[in-house]
């Protein structure tokens, strides 16, 4: 019997920063997935060290021994701030837990395992969540998002999550932007509570601008201005990565193609990846017949 677990990636974060010195992010899960398959035969074939570490820690946590064949299928770009490692790790933890015990790990259990390996995105929690991605002190459900499409762009390069979070200037720079981040959180939370894509976009844009002194995105000001001209509700970024997204509500989706063409024309520094949807996060578990378990 094969068990498959899919975890969504992200287009950065809706908001990221600190509250009274405590790190947090608000997730931005998208319909671009990593999938881990577990087969009840053979040894592990994982080539990703972080995922392999997560599997080992899951067995240790469950106090079981495992001898499964594992495969990870993902085309999520690595080092871009798209939660590629968090997706792989969370899907692998859940897959081997179900295979070994027949029971699911809770999201908090997955977070506890993942945080032993590296700072983690909370894309495996249902809905949109505020989470302390470094120590796990904050885990707050915020609700499900309204329909929002995101045009995903990459400004180039890669960012190492562990190295970024060890920066000596990070705490000071995060403290400096706490007032803007508090406003961004308020907008996003209200937008999720009321289903108002415009407020979510405003909060995400405010957080993106506030993050420029920490991790500069070339062309961000121009992208924001162009996106507004074509009816976008806002812009989100990977606060510790290289992607940015232009957010369109369902009502304004007709402006996406023209906006994309204008970005191509005026912002050669950024490369278009694909258009995705903002979704409620969470893991999808399926069996041999493809049905959800």
Give an overview of the whole structure:
The chain is α+β, with helices and mostly antiparallel strands and 293 residues long. The protein has 2 domains: 2-138 and 279-286, Ribosomal Protein S5, domain 2 (2-Layer Sandwich); 143-277, Alpha-Beta Plaits, CATH 3.30.70. The protein has 9 helices and 10 strands. The strands form 2 sheets. Strands 1, 2, 3, 4, 5 and 10 form a 6-stranded antiparallel beta sheet that branches. The longest helix is centred in the N-terminal third of the chain and has 18 residues, at 84-101.
Write the layout of secondary structure elements.
Blueprint: E1 2-19, E2 22-39, H1 49-62, E3 69-74, H2 84-101, H3 107-115, E4 128-131, E5 139-143, E6 148-154, H4 161-165, H5 170-176, H6 178-194, H7 197-210, H8 220-229, E7 234-237, E8 243-249, H9 256-266, E9 271-277, E10 284-286
Antiparallel strand pairs: 1-2, 1-10, 2-3, 2-4, 4-5, 6-8, 6-9, 7-8
Helix pairs in contact: 1-2, 2-3, 6-7, 8-9
């Amino acid at each position: 019997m094969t068990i498959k677990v899919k975890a969504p990636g992200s287009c950065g974060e809706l908001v990221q920063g600190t509250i009274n010195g405590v790190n947090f992010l608000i997730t931005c899960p998208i319909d671009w997935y990593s999938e881990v398959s577990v087969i009840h035969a053979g040894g592990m074939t994982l080539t990703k060290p972080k995922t392999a570490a997560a599997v080992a820690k899951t067995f240790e946590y469950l106090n079981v021994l495992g001898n499964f064949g594992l495969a990870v299928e993902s085309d999520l770009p690595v080092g871009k701030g798209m939660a590629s490692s968090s997706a792989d790790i969370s899907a692998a933890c859940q897959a081997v837990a179900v295979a070994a015990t027949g029971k699911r790990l809770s999201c908090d259990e997955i977070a506890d395992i993942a945080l032993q390996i590296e700072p983690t995105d909370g894309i495996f929690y249902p809905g949109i969540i505020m989470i302390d991605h470094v120590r796990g002190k904050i885990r707050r459900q915020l609700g499900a998002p309204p329909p929002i499409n995101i045009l995903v762009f990459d400004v180039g390069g890669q960012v190492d999550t562990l190295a970024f979070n060890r920066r000596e200037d990070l705490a000071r720079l995060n403290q400096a932007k706490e007032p803007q981040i508090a406003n961004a959180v308020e907008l996003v939370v209200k937008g999720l509570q009321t289903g108002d894509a415009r407020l979510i976009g405003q909060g995400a844009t405010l957080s993106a601008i506030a993050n420029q002194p920490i991790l500069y995105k070339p062309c961000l000001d121009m992208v924001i201005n162009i996106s507004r001209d074509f009816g976008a509700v806002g812009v989100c970024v990977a606060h510790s990565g290289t992607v940015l997204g232009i957010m369109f509500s369902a009502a304004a989706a007709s402006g996406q193609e023209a906006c994309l063409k204008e970005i191509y024309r005026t912002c050669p520094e950024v490369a278009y990846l694909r258009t995705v949807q903002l979704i409620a996060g969470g893991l999808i578990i399926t069996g041999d017949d493809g049905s959800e378990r």
